[in-house]
Amino acid sequence: MYEKxxxxxxxxxxxxxxxxxxxxxxxxxxxxxxxxWSNSVIEGSRSFVVAQVRYVHFVxxxxxxxxxxxxxxxxxxxxxxxxxxxxxxxxxxxIKNLFSxxxxxxxxTDRHEQRLGHNVLAGTVYILxxxxxxxxxxxxxxxxxxxxxxxxxxGVSLFGSQAQARFVHYLIxxxxxxxxxxxxxxxxxxxxxxxxxxxxSIFTGRKFFHKDTIS
Length: 215
Ligand code: HEM
Ligand code: HEM
Hints:
With 215 residues, this protein is mainly α. The protein is 68% helix and 5% strand. It has eight helices and two strands, in the order βααααααααβ.
């Protein structure tokens, strides 16, 4: 009765977990860099906590940038579900899916289209997240290499000054923190409502469908 279909490639799943785990580390270390609360207690003797936390932040930052580049590659060269246009609100069918998903999430209807890839509401938020990640990467690289002419020219055109880049970098940290909780809530909610096995799909790559409902 149910068919098991491959939705996500190995590379996509690696991207997801590299991205998710690096962000968890980046938020934790970023908050510490913003407010280094341990400073006067242990800093200055044999340990140098701020430097160590900054180092972890930069290593996780490069994992984050690598994951971002992999996602950009998959937008154009991934499988059908992973391509940018599969879940972007750019076609009449996708715009219809966007609104029907909003109605479904607001409990206005129980009917919704079964899709192998993301629904378009999720897809739109994910595209926004990748877009925001780009600003996070550029602001981070400009703070890390303040004298580089390359990052300097990107930095000045996007943020104006280093102080503003740092402020935007900090605000985007809150975007990711809020995204994290809403994302978890929605994937668990979907997993409870639908028998497709959404959460396991991000580990196994496979979803379950009634043979005749898939699009
Ligand atoms: C820790 C538990 C997590 C679980 C169980 C989880 C699960 C999932 C699942 C099931 C999907 C596919 C959903 C769909 O088809 O709409 C997904 C996609 C995604 N998740 Fe997570 N996730 C987790 C953490 C995170 C974190 C921490 C982030 C980043 C802050 C994140 C970012 C994303 C993004 C950006 C996508 C879309 C990928 C794309 O198509 O570009 N996830 N996640
Ligand atoms: C989701 C991704 C990221 C998050 C949530 C994040 C978060 C933060 C936060 C909250 C701060 C403190 C800002 C402040 O003082 O107000 C910070 C600082 C910084 N971040 Fe990130 N960051 C991320 C990605 C990156 C990346 C990709 C890089 C570059 C490799 C980077 C490099 C830096 C640098 C250089 C600083 C300044 C350190 C200092 O002044 O001591 N960050 N980050």
